[in-house]
Inverse folding.
């Protein structure tokens, strides 16, 4: 009878998962989701979970959705990639990734440009960029070259304008760079801002407008085309061929290796060795030479 009573009590209390199911993709779930801890039981009440492991304990949990998880993983990837660029270049080359050419991409650009552009070189990464309409804003910043120095009596030399670009620029592009990303890569070459490294861009520049039909379906009709001074209308369906072609094969993804990024770093370092970086006439904050 005691065993039956224990079975009834166990049937009333449902086992809990250690992680919120919403975090994981419904198509591919982690091992822990399919194998809950059967020795742990919980009674759910709003945002509180009472776990019975001998003595009762209450935990407050907060679940977050897939979108927040994607943003967290993206931020982690950007930070790790920037750290790799800084380490490989001895902190002389900066890194900025533009996820799109819209509000998010513009926010990312202004988030990192003031600090990353202080280095002697800068890599702009537009891989996996579906486009938008901020290319002219980004180009306006990249075209602002250094014109001089502000030399203080007791402060380090500061370049003028302070938000000017470093002398060495490299653009990373790939087969998933499209629309306004195509335009940015094409303009980058036309203005001769620096080499484009990676794979040929997607080549989809037309802007469509959705038209709703009587049955509720939509037809997307192109309404704006882009004609490049260099390529004319051939940018559509052809894309931008990089100056330094580098493929990113599937086995590189599996091995967590980025040959395109490595080649961009190597090219930036090569350009820096040419001595194109401006040097201040004097730096008051620098230590005095030994007598």
């Amino acid at each position: 009878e005691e065993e039956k009573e224990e079975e009834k009590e166990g049937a009333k209390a449902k086992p809990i998962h250690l992680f919120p199911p919403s975090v994981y993709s419904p198509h591919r779930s982690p091992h822990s989701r399919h194998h809950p801890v059967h020795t742990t039981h919980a009674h759910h009440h709003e945002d509180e979970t009472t776990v019975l492991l001998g003595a009762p304990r209450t935990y407050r949990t907060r679940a977050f959705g897939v979108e927040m998880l994607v943003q967290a993983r993206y931020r982690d990837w950007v930070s790790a990639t920037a750290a790799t660029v800084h380490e490989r270049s001895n902190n002389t080359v900066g890194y900025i990734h533009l996820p799109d050419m819209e509000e998010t991409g513009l926010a990312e650009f202004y988030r990192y440009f003031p600090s990353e552009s202080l280095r002697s070189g800068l890599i702009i990464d537009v891989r996996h960029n579906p486009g938008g309409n901020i290319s002219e804003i980004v180009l306006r910043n990249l075209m602002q070259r250094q014109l001089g120095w502000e030399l203080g009596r007791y402060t380090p030399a500061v370049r003028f304008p302070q938000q000017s670009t470093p002398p060495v620029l490299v653009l990373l592009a790939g087969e998933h760079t499209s629309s306004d990303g195509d335009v940015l890569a094409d303009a980058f070459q036309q203005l001769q801002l620096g080499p484009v490294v990676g794979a040929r861009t997607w080549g989809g520049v037309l802007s469509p407008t959705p038209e709703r039909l009587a049955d509720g379906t939509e037809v997307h009709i192109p309404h704006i085309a882009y004609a490049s001074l260099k390529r004319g209308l051939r940018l559509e369906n052809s894309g931008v061929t990089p100056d330094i072609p580098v493929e990113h094969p599937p086995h590189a993804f599996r091995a967590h290796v980025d040959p395109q990024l490595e080649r961009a770093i190597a090219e930036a370092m090569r350009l820096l060795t040419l001595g194109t970086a401006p040097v201040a006439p004097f730096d008051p904050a620098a230590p005095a030479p030994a007598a």
Observations:
- Confidence is low (pLDDT under 50) at residues 10-46.
- The helical segments are 2-12, 31-34, 66-88, 103-116, 135-142, 180-190, 250-254, 259-272.
- The CA atoms of residues 140 and 153 lie 32 Å apart.
- The first strand starts at residue 14 and ends at 15.
